[in-house]
Amino acid sequence: MTLTLTRERGATTPTTPARPRRRTRGRQLGVYAALIVAGVATMLPFVWMLLGSIKPAGEILADPGGWLPHSPTLDNYRQWFGALRIGTYFRNSVIVAVVTVLGNLLFCSMVGYALAKLEFAGKRILFALVLITLMVPGVVTFVPLFVVVAKLHLINTYAGLILPFLTSPLGVFLMRQFMRSIPDSLLEAARIDGAGEVRIFARIVLPLSGPPLATLGILTFLASWNNFLWPLVVAQNQDRYTLPVALSLYSTGEQATDYGLLLAGSVLVITPIVVAFVALQRWFVQGVATVGLK
Amino acid sequence: MSRIRFGLIVLLSSVLCVTACGRSASNNETAPGGAIGAGPATGTITIWAQGAEAEQLPTILKEFQAANPDVKVNVTPIPWPAAHNKYQTAIAGGTTPDIGQLGTTWMGEFGAANALAPVPSDLNAGAFYPGSVKSTQLRGGTYGIPWYVDTPVLYYRTDLAAKAGYRGPPATWADFKAMAKALQAKAGAKFGVGLAPKDFQGFLPFAWSNGASLTSSDGTKWTLDDPAMVEAARYYQSFFAEGIADRTPSTDPGAHEAAFVNGSVPMFLGGPFEVGELNKAGGAGFAGKYATAVLPRGKSATSFVGGSNLVVFKKSANSAAAWKLIRFLSRPQTQVAWYSATGDLPSVQAAWTDPTLSVDPKLAVFGRQLQDVNAPPATAEWTQVQSAGDAQMERLTVSGNDPAQAMKTLQANAASIGTGAR
Amino acid sequence: MTALGPAAARRRQSYVAWLFALPFVAVFGLFMLVPLLSSVLMSFTDFRSSDVATPWAVDFVGVEQYARLFADPVFRRALANTAYFVLLGIPLTMAVALLLAMALNTGITRFRAAFRVGFYTPVVTSVVAVAVVWRFILQPDGLLNRALSGLGITGPDWLHSTTWAMPSLIAMAAWRNMGTLMIIFLAGLQAVPAEVGEAATADGATAWQRFRHITLPLLRPTLLLGAVLISVGYLQFFEEPFVMTQGGPLDSTLSVTYFTYNQFGFGRYGIAAAASYVVFAAIAVVSLLQFRLLRAKE
């Protein structure tokens, strides 16, 4: 089924009268300037983190507020790749994060679509339950959740690490909100043409949901990648530790903290997130926009 | 339809809980553990340890493995910041290891959860420092073995002290304050000493050194407002009131080490790990510019003792081998080797006579301080009282409240929390 | 395909819908509803961490648990602090994020991607780095006060003042979270068709009028999503006071979640669960209000 409803952004026929060039230019420059100042201010801690990661630990202890390293060193990074075996933890984090993201994208969009566009018994109750769990602070269900997972013998397994987070109420809420804005007429037309619900979902709804899917992907990846407490309690030995657990393990002692190691580890941990962010945001910017049917 | 069903389920569960819940007048008496006996260890032992200790354990245990070829030891390292959570959830889910490393202040809570096995009768508790053994004694029995200890002592800049006219450390409370003032007047220090404004545990050495006690002798009542305690609080407050200690010290990483190195705060109370941190921060040659000393004497010179204990969990399937491993770790030779590997102070008194430990003067100070240390009661209630104490300390030092009033409030709070002596 | 009668078609749709929902419901039921139910029950008992091995051997306390909670002055303080944080923080963060999203969407044409990544960095920066830099800014002799003294104002000791600690943390939280809201609003703005705005400009509408009457209404579902998200997060704010002020000075930045964290630390699971459900009730009320305010006109 082909629908010629997608459009490239910016490919609109100009209907605006020509504005005086100077005014637009001036305003644009003003916006740029403001954004640059704000952007630099916003990135200060990030820059401090990067600079701190190449300082030897003693230097951070001696001058915590300092910026430029006096004797930059890659030792902190070398330790992570060498003695501290970052490969295992990286592998675990990747497996858990990728499966969690894919699961969420698929299952949350399925349920979000059902809640947004289909009628079924128990729809209201389901949505109410979703909202309720969205609003419950995670800390209170933590220990009972662990007991459930322990009783299911999922401790120290990838399944135990992934399953509880394979779908999320937030993802369902997000997808439902966005999918509500898909015109019903579009779906009706497809049904009249004889398409089944699965086909409609796969061929029409999903492609139109690029932006929310990308957003959900970013948020889920971030949450899964940074998850510290759950992998810590589920893993029974180092082989199942994820990056944040390893980071805490090697850099924070009972009293002393190796800040150089901690910051270098933090940089390593966030690098995939930044990469994922850059990749996914490109996707939802280019190419997909919804337009109402006439 | 589904709404009614849902409601019924909730109602049923609540009813179930109301009828099924209820504490029994449980018997908290404990039987002493059986003997470990001689003979080698067999089977598998899983041991959870935190941070640096976990790193060094496999090396230290090589000798144990050699002596017990039929045993396999698995060491799982867990990070300090969340170790408490991990033990809590493991107890909840029944997934505890054979041996765990518990901080001395955690013993009360996990002991009350009935998760620990009592120490066998043939493991000699007399070898350890009495202050540390206190943290393993719960409900009339002994439930762990002190592994290593730490205790805060006084750190001071010897070069700046000389400038201020002091050849050695302060001996008494009066000396201590005078020296701090002199450091400010004559050696260019911004603050004479670094004291924690809202840390009740940091204040305890002062309380104990003035003869105060946290509880009555049978441990059933808190005695936080007795005159000795108030007097100690007044002394502590005076440092802040007279501008000798900073009311708002920086909490940045390594801030107080940096201040010690650059001379703005040339005295503070710290544990043994500070030696390493200060040498790192101060660079080459700094080690010669400072020294450690036993705490200044009030009525006594009592410090706080913390550290880690080794426990065997009740659910362990191989407790015999586990206790044998713990016995190995408590031998004086092993404790000395452990110190060399990690810098953790031995909890076994005999270990301190070894030349490795008696040669370093900074270290010898810790050995002397350990002769006079105390610890808060090892109960779950202590952490709550401590938190209430932190709040009152803040009002004392930062807001300048009257110490008698503050301690009275604290006593009232503590009384309502109770001592847990059920 | 044979045409189905309306009732059969509805049943078919219902059946398919449940198939779609099944994976979610299975995971959700087992890993969220079960723990949720048991924690609700726990909040009505005097459950302590020492009871985890024998969960039924606790005393049922009932509603009195909540009464006890509200009688605690520290808890009431935490409630007030949290309310203050939320009332100021939500509008501030949403406004900043919306401004950013619009600036990046229509205000500029080049380097959009670079700016987006830049404004998102606070979300991914290690909290250690965030704390150090913000303390550096808020110290008595820090960046902010130096800037203010240039204007002739002597700034207070921000983090140690009972009046200014909270606003400082609110600013810090807004800074940390604007990136997340920004990408949500950007996704929403993508769905606002460009020609409608252009047609309005052709008719002589100003930027502000375009914003109020076209952009804003079309953004309603997205704004609602952002509002709910940020209020769920802010009602549970914890990291900022934990890292910067440890709940002080004098409990002026103690949040309900920090209070709950302390109670879990003391092993008082029953009370901690009760406090968590108070937060839940607050979140429910706030979300309901937001649904009313921002519900898209169908």
Walkthrough of the structure:
- The complex is a heterotrimer of chains A (294), B (422) and C (298).
- With 294 residues, chain A is mainly alpha-helical.
- Chain A has a domain at 85-251: MetI-like (MetI-like fold), CATH 1.10.3720.
- Chain A contains 14 helices and no strands.
- The radius of gyration of chain A is 24 Å and the shape is globular.
- Chain B is of the alpha/beta class.
- Chain B has helices at 2-20, 51-60, 62-67, 83-93, 107-112, 130-133, 158-163, 173-186, 200-209, 227-241, 255-261, 273-282, 319-329, 332-342, 355-359, 361-369, 380-397, 403-417, and strands spanning 43-50, 71-78, 99-103, 137-138, 141-142, 145-150, 153-157, 267-270, 290-293, 303-304, 306-312, 345-346, 373-374.
- In chain B, strand 4 (137-138) and strand 5 form a beta hairpin.
- Chain C has a single domain, classed as MetI-like (MetI-like fold).
- Chain C has helices at 6-42, 64-71, 73-107, 112-124, 127-138, 143-150, 165-190, 194-202, 207-235, 239-244, 256-266, 269-294.
- Chain C starts with 5 loop residues before the first helix and ends with a helix.
- The chains are: A mainly alpha (294), B alpha/beta (422), C mainly alpha (298).
- Chains in contact: A-B, A-C, B-C.
- Chains A and B meet through helix 2, helix 6, helix 12 and helix 13 of A and helix 1, strand 2, helix 4, helix 11 and helix 12 of B.
Concise account of the structure shown:
Chain B is of the alpha/beta class. Chain B has helices spanning 2-20, 51-60, 62-67, 83-93, 107-112, 130-133, 158-163, 173-186, 200-209, 227-241, 255-261, 273-282, 319-329, 332-342, 355-359, 361-369, 380-397, 403-417, and strands at 43-50, 71-78, 99-103, 137-138, 141-142, 145-150, 153-157, 267-270, 290-293, 303-304, 306-312, 345-346, 373-374. In chain B, helix 11 crosses helix 12.
